[in-house]
Amino acid sequence: QVQLQESGPGLVKPSQTLSLTCTVSGESITANYYTWNWIRQPPGKGLEWMGHINYSGNTYYAASLKSRTSISRDTSKNQFTLQLSAVTPEDTAVYYCVRGNPRDYWGQGTQVTVSS
Question: How many angstroms separate the CA atoms of 71 and 51, rounded?
Fold first, then answer.
């Protein structure tokens, strides 16, 4: 059974960098041909795909967030990490890590609030 678990601070100050880690169990993040995604949902809005890192370590980002987003991985820990810089209150959302291709396994989500 594949499981994903997000971890990181629930409160970030404006202009700082948000950093979240997803720990994966039950599947290697290097296994063909999956992608490992970050998706968020702001309050009262729909899901927004932020980007992914694929099985070979290549990254792809949503155009609207590309300048502020970085996704990396630690294969020894079977984890992948999201960093979102220069956050504003508009980045307040529930953040999910998701196995993709297809999107079949989701973490439970973690609430991140951007506030001073």
Answer: 7
